[in-house]
Amino acid sequence: EPNPLDLLREEMGTDEVYVKVNAIHRLQIITTILGPDKVQSQLLPYLSTLTNEEDEVLFALAQELGNISSFLPNPSVLLPLLETLAMMDETVVREQAVKSLISISNALSDSDIINLLVPCVLKLSAAENFSSRISAVTLFGAAYPRSGNFKEKLRQKFLELSHEDTPMVRRAAVIEMGIFAKVVEKQFLISELIPDIRQLAQDEQDQVRTLCVDTMIEVARLLNKEENKLHTLPIILLVGEDKSWRVRYHFAQKFPQLAEALGKEITENSLIQTFVQLLRDIEADVKSIALHSLKSTMNLINRDKIQNLVFPTVEAISSDVSLNPKVRKNCAEVIAEMVQYVGREFASSKIAPIALVLMSDESFEVKMKMVEGLGNLASVIGSELLSPPIINQMVSLVKESPQWRLRKTVIKSCVDITRHLGEEAFIRHLQPIYMSFLTDPVNDVREAGIEELNILSTVMTPEWTVAEFLTKLEEIYHSQANCISRITILRAMGSIYVNPDQYVPIFNEAARDKVANVRLILCKVIKKLSSKIDVSQFRNLLQDLSRDADKDVKYYAQQALR
Which of 49, 328, 465, 539 has a CA-to-CA distance to 262 between 20 and 30 Å? Predict the structure, then answer.
């Protein structure tokens, strides 16, 4: 019977890296066959000789050592080899070794933590190569909770590493700080870690200062309101006014999480002033991401603050035509969201005029984003939103815009507004705009109109469908020489359900159409309608089409007859 360890040695002797990697990935099978004693006495000593192999092999080894730990009664025997791998210069190998060490630490006894893992962390902390010290920083969170009398030493060593000269180690320490804060006793979190973060928030490296934002979110979640006011808020405000636009960008990006962690009261009373400054930032990217974050933060700000502090800044952005389209597009999104928080009167007098300005923007993306938000505005402002200037702009966009995506958005917006305002508003203001999809030259616009018809039919009465919609369809059908429009009208008829007699004029004409595709679509539409209404009166028409000269028409007519 072949020895699995001999097979492993043989495969590791090859020059092909993928063969070695595959061999390492079979360690779980080898461990099961050998048993715990032979793993410790034979397998691990052999694996320890492989530390000069290629990085791909070492990565697989670091991964599999973590996986085989569950097969061993005492996984602590894996620590020496993983410690060696955690000292490697190659980042992926080192990081995987640390992941495996953290995984194994959960299965270690308290004595193994104190006698094996803590010395491992301290040894890595004191190593000359910075990569080992980065590994050490990441292991503090796993070692600390059960480290007994070593807790103070571990805290001191962690704080020491967070201020060492190598920027990569300081960055690793800031990243780990949020995890370490969760396992450190609150008194030491306040007396030792937070003062340390305050210093790191003023670090010369902007990457370190940037990472402080994420750390402060984690720390704020661990403290109560009064503790946050006293300890974390000053640091957060300091970072929010950083000289580097990258740090301010990250602060603005993470503002929703910061506001949530600190709570509504602190956000309204202290944090929002710093955030408004970011909305006024000289860097377009900072301004843009701040607007994006504002959408998901307004629920934490009271109406008075939104109206008097936030809105004037957003209004200034909307009127600044020198800003790039991305900023103004985000501004349009904010305007559509803000309307939910400011009340009807304010929305009607202040926000609706801004919507009109952004609908007239030079950038089609800004126009499109604002048109998308009209449904939101309608839900608060009501029919007052549909003023002549707004309607005229919608008409202009749907008739004159060369951008088909914009025309499609206007069509969809008509239905969205109707969902909030009802049939009367649609008939009075929006019907001609919506109906324009029937003759649009772009298929996607026509498709959107047909899709929205399913939603529209739930709002509008059957009387409108017959008196207005079908009448309009007949009028366009008879006046259009364009077969594409005739096909669109047929497909639209397949999305409404009325008395079968109402379909007869157009269906009879379509059955005699010179264009085969029109006749084919007719067959498909009748087939679709058959699941909702009685289409037996069209049987003779379908039988005629089943003998059509075009084989596709013939096929679909036969399908509809079944």
Answer: 328
**542 backbone dihedrals φ, ψ, rounded to 5°:** -70, -35
This prediction's pTM: 0.83
The DSSP code for 400 is H
pLDDT at 267 over 80: yes
pLDDT at 1 over 70: no
Q: Tokens 């050998």 label which residue? A: 34
Q: Which of 146, 198, 208 is nearest to 175 (CA)?
A: 208
| Encoded tokens for 120 | 């491992």
Q: How far apart are CA 212 and CA 135, in angstroms?
A: 19
Record the tokens describing residue 453, joined without a space. 């018809």
- Per the structure block, which two tokens stand in for 283? 């860097």
Apex 104 CA angle, 103 and 105, nearest 5: 95
Nearest residue to 147 via CA among 121, 114, 123: 114
Residue 481 pLDDT more than 80? no
Q: Which are the contacts of 203, defined by CB distance < 8 A and separation ≥ 6?
A: 170, 209, 212
Which of the four pLDDT bands, split at 50, 70 and 90, describes residue 454?
A: confident
178: three-class secondary structure by DSSP: helix
pLDDT digits (tens, 9 = 90+) for 3-49: 889 899 999 999 999 999 999 999 999 999 999 899 999 999 999 99
Query: Which amino acid is residue 228, in one-letter code?
Result: N
